[in-house]
Amino acid sequence: MIVPFVDLKAQYISLKDEIDSAISTVIEKTAFIGGSFVSDFEKDFARLYGVKHCISTANGTDSLYIVMKMLGIGEGDEVITVANSWISSSETISQTGAKPVFVDINKDYYSIDEHLLEAAITKSTKCIIPVHLHGQMCNMDMIMAISNKHSIPVLEDCAQSHFSELNGQRAGTIGIAGSFSFYPGKNLGAYGDAGCIITNDDDLAMKCKMYARHGALKKHQHEIEGINSRLDGLQASILQVKLPHILKWTDNRISRAAKYYQLLSNIENVILPKVRENSKHSYHLFVIRAERRDELAQYLKNKGIETAIHYPTALPNLKAYEYLGYSELEFPVSTNFQDKILSLPMYPELTDEMINYVAGTISDFYNQITN
Ligand SMILES: *Cc1c(COP(=O)(O)O)cnc(C)c1O
């Protein structure tokens, strides 16, 4: 049996007629940039998500950058984010001219260690970017308490947490803004790059929209210099077809995860992800910690099972951040987990047979090495 890490084709096939027709309509109407496909998607996403504003962007990296720029962050400032994430979370901080400050991860939940956050704050800290990694939200109660105490805005990186919840609140609706990616492999994925910003703050929404559209809300009336970060009509029309299915797909991911928990919970050499109380994990990724991880991954690969590592090197340990002068010892949890974490296949279309096969093969690997 072959179990790919993700299977974007399966989802396309399930919606083929609608997607093909949406694409031809956009072409027919030559609504390539701007227009009703984009504004309809923004409205519908905001309504379904339960926020006032959705500003579409070209990708999730831009979303982070745009919000920070519009919060006035730049040279001389510091922005706190987490040591284990995709590089966009920190790269965009540097792009504004500010300095990225990393905080280690919580060993149970893989996201920013809320107990280390306050110690990282200095007079120069202008923003905190928690990343709801793998689909599970960070401890937002504590993060918001610290944010309020120091009057530092929180920008939630929700690229992996569409429709995740904590205490009944959705990811991206707790801080000043939420940043989303619709990269094809994300829980809600376009057929190219795409992203958005959500916020309930009218002023910030207006500024972000203006900045992403060359600093102009009306054609040729450039109030500031901005950037070009647009969602195109084709991507918007594809996302619009997919949007009504996202909650069902999220439920499917949760049921796929439940199957993994059931089958893997008695394998001693594997640590399964822990879920916070009162939270809805949207399982963008199903990440285990495994003894002899690299050998296990190779064994699975030989048996037709694709896995991945998110991420093989913690951000401060990357060559790109050598100049900040951090030592691996400052991020013991992230550094230690680099060699243990393994992302198993996870998508709504994953069948019971496939999960049985993945779990059975993991079990075979450990039986074989211990015998
Ligand atoms: C995917 C991702 C991004 C960036 O999104 P793009 O649309 O690829 O630019 C940012 N942060 C995290 C945590 C991500 O996983």
What features would you describe in this structure?
The chain is α/β, with parallel strands linked by helices and 371 residues long. It contains 13 helices and 13 strands. A four-stranded mixed beta sheet has the order 1-9-8-5. Helix 5 links the parallel strand 2 and strand 3. The mean pLDDT is 97. Pyridoxal-5'-phosphate binds next to helix 4 and helix 5.
Please write the string of helix (H) and strand (E) elements. HHHEHEHEHEHEEEEEHHHEEEHHEH
Identify the bound ligands: pyridoxal-5'-phosphate
Total helical elements: 13
Helix content: 25-40%
Unreliable residue stretches: none
Ends distance: 25 Å
Lateral arrangement of strands in the main beta sheet: 1-9-8-5
Q: Any descriptors?
A:
globular; alpha/beta; 371 residues; single chain; binds pyridoxal-5'-phosphate; four-stranded mixed sheet; three-stranded parallel sheet; 13 strands
List the helices and strands and how they pair.
Blueprint: H1 8-14, H2 16-28, H3 36-49, E1 53-57, H4 60-70, E2 78-82, H5 88-96, E3 99-103, H6 114-117, E4 125-128, H7 140-150, E5 155-157, E6 165-166, E7 169-170, E8 177-181, E9 195-199, H8 202-212, H9 233-242, H10 246-264, E10 270-271, E11 279-280, E12 286-290, H11 293-302, H12 332-337, E13 341-344, H13 352-370
Parallel strand pairs: 2-3, 2-4, 5-8
Antiparallel strand pairs: 1-9, 6-7, 6-11, 8-9, 10-12, 12-13
Helix pairs in contact: 2-9, 3-9, 4-5, 4-8, 10-13
